[in-house]
Design brief:
The chain has 305 residues and is an alpha/beta fold. The chain contains 17 helices and 7 strands. Helix 10 runs parallel beside helix 16.
């Protein structure tokens, strides 16, 4: 059994990278040397075995061990595996306005060269893509609306881990300058003292961006989701080193873009917006969070649909 104290399981594009980067500086907390090992969610990582997973945690003498991996929340298998293979009870969910989260994921797929449709078209075709001949790829890269329906994902963790102690945070509170910020709540949740200096010095990670050079982008990602050239060049490198190298290259190749293009939200599919609205109500019941601002945003978009 892995001696893990906590998991931050999601959601993707909900601010977990920023949270990870701040927590990684806290002396009481030990995180894997690579963010998002995907060990409990992806078969190719499982094949590397438990020794590989244990090796991802550096020996730094920290008292609290955990992992931040937003793939776990959406994975149908991660909760059960976490329950069976770790004693972890503390599970944190970082949630974001669902339609804004979906659009942020869409922009990430566009940046990687995986998406050529408009946001509206992608939402309309999502169910067909998820059941098509590229379902596995679609599950990872084109699951915009599906990942934004949080209630079933939360319920899976609550049912699969009977001992669970959940923490629910809205992404917009993570780095707020207040005693009840998401960061402060999280530190107290896992049993350590918040470090405001780390929060003040931290920067927002994973901001929306676009590639400066398409050739470099395709070397890293490739249009089909698997870069053969990248695999050949890095075949002999340790996984943690590969991740650091390509994260650095990818970062240098990005230039920030604004996410305030509201025209992308014109005429969005009403069934998608309606399903998100229903899910918000269920999430409020499950989490106790006030999500009224999300409801108001969706109502505005429904009026434009």
């Amino acid at each position: 059994m892995f001696e893990i104290d906590f998991f931050v399981v999601g959601t993707q594009k909900g601010g977990t990278t920023s949270l990870h980067d701040i927590l990684n500086e806290h002396p009481d907390i030990c995180l894997p040397s690579i963010k998002e090992t995907h060990y409990f969610s992806h078969s190719d990582r499982r094949e590397r075995g438990p020794d590989w997973y244990r090796s991802q945690f550096p020996a730094r003498g920290s008292s609290i061990t955990g992992e931040v991996d937003p793939e776990y929340m959406f994975s149908p298998l991660a909760a059960k595996r976490i329950s069976e293979e770790t004693p972890a009870r503390k599970i944190a969910f970082v949630l974001r306005n669902p339609i804004r989260r979906a659009y942020s994921q869409f922009l990430m797929s566009v940046r990687r060269g995986y998406e050529t449709l408009s946001f509206r078209e992608a939402l309309l075709l999502e169910n067909d893509r998820l059941s098509g001949d590229r379902a596995s790829f679609a599950y990872d890269e084109w699951s915009y609306a599906s990942r934004s329906l949080y209630s079933a994902q939360i319920e899976r963790f609550l049912s699969e881990i009977p001992r669970v102690e959940p923490l629910f945070l809205r992404s917009e509170t993570l780095t707020a300058d207040a005693d009840d910020s998401g960061y402060n709540q999280f530190c107290r949740f896992v049993g350590t003292t918040p470090r405001p200096d780390l929060l003040a010095n931290g920067t927002r990670s994973n901001v929306a961006s676009q590639p400066r050079h398409a050739g470099i982008r395709d070397f890293i990602y490739a249009n089909n989701g698997r870069s053969g050239l990248r695999r050949q060049i890095t075949a002999l490198l340790p996984t943690s080193l590969k991740v650091r190298i390509f994260k650095m290259i990818d970062g240098l190749n990005q230039q920030p873009i604004a996410q305030k293009d509201e025209t992308a939200f014109d005429d969005l599919p009403e069934p998608v917006l309606a399903s998100m609205a229903r899910d918000i109500e269920r999430c409020e019941d499950l989490t106790g969070l006030d999500l009224s601002s999300w409801r108001e945003d969706l109502e505005t978009l429904q009026d434009r649909a």
